[in-house]
Amino acid sequence: MKVVAKSIDMVAWFNIQGTPNPVRFRFVNDDESYRVIKIDKVVTMDREKLAGNDMLVFKCQSIVDGVQTLFEIKYEIGTCRWILYKI
Fold this sequence. Notes:
It is a single chain. The chain has 87 residues and is mainly β. The protein has one domain (3-86). Helix content is 0%, strand content 72%. It is built from no helices and 8 strands. It has a 5-stranded antiparallel sheet with strand order 1-8-7-6-5, with no helix packed on it. The protein has a 3-stranded antiparallel sheet with strand order 2-3-4, with no helix packed on it. It is globular and about 35 Å long.
């Protein structure tokens, strides 16, 4: 996996405890076009503290361009911001 650390737009639902469950996300490609990826499966969810900010780390898998791909997305709890960290 390669670190990209791009800000993304996320569609997610939250359970009663407030834990997000990602569904699909959108990001801007290098050629300024949008790319939408539907999350097929969340493999793991962990908590981490990065530079003093609490984050939820989701390792997910999806089929991208006909190939099963693993990627990592992060949710920054304090700012409610989503980041595509590795793909």
